[in-house]
What we know:
Three copies of one chain form a homotrimer. By secondary structure, chain A is of the alpha/beta class. Helix content of chain A is 29%, strand content 30%. Chain A has a single domain, classed as Macrophage Migration Inhibitory Factor. In chain A, α1 runs antiparallel to α2. At the B-C interface, α1, β2, β6 and β7 of B face β3, α2 and β5 of C. Chains A, B, C: GO terms for molecular function: cytokine activity; dopachrome isomerase activity; phenylpyruvate tautomerase activity.
Amino acid sequence: MPVIHTHVSVKTTAAQREALKKAYGKAISAVPGKSEGWLMCPFEDNMPIYFAGDGEEPAAYVEVNVFGSSVPRAAWEQLTAAICEALDKQLAIRADRIYIRYTATTDWGWNGSNF
Amino acid sequence: MPVIHTHVSVKTTAAQREALKKAYGKAISAVPGKSEGWLMCPFEDNMPIYFAGDGEEPAAYVEVNVFGSSVPRAAWEQLTAAICEALDKQLAIRADRIYIRYTATTDWGWNGSNF
Amino acid sequence: MPVIHTHVSVKTTAAQREALKKAYGKAISAVPGKSEGWLMCPFEDNMPIYFAGDGEEPAAYVEVNVFGSSVPRAAWEQLTAAICEALDKQLAIRADRIYIRYTATTDWGWNGSNF
């Protein structure tokens, strides 16, 4: 039950989102027990995002939410490196204009009932 | 202070959102102390959502956030059943392509001050 | 690492978002250790938002997420007052149609690694 929810200020193409999704799918395996088979990736693009008072340079806000009570810090570190690299490569968003917020929570619904 | 924040990959009509909002309004009463009178329902539609590597089949990501320190698990279970049923009925999104993430947190603002 | 993520039902202009961003930038200094230099402000507008069963009157849902383990309640209170005032002034959204959800969490990525 991992979700990687991407908000970016730039426009994206289907090919770029496909490449990001593939990169996320590989990266999520850094988190114990998670794989692309359970990964959801919503994308929101072309939205105004200010960072440090500036709304001109491309920026990204990514929320990574997983099912569970905790995740080793090293796993989040690996994800941060992979997500920043993918957003820079695909969308030319500089890593210092990206925030990624991580949460692990225990109440998730899927397929009509809860995990 | 419950919020049911719906993200779906398909387009929605005003009538469909109205029907979903009504279904959510009934369902939220499963959570002790909550009612439609305090329920907020933001809708985001027609957005790319990948699940299990696939971006073709309809999918939904729903965040249910309430004011409070905890909620009985049985209440979340009832909500999951009702939300999945409503999304399937109104938008033909299969329950196994829906994630619902639940949180209860204690800091909320409304009407100029905090609860 | 504060993020003020604004969702509003009304359309916004670049000038209105600029004014909101400025107001948020001033307001965030109420939170110990935070400043506009680290503030990210994603904006989503013109989206359907129901509140108390009504989808006609303007409404807003704001998520304020910061890095850290806790924040003094008084700081959140000041933010609520400032955010409600700014949304009313710029977008004519009444304070009693605004929810603001606050979280402080400890896992954040930026610039390729985690704080």
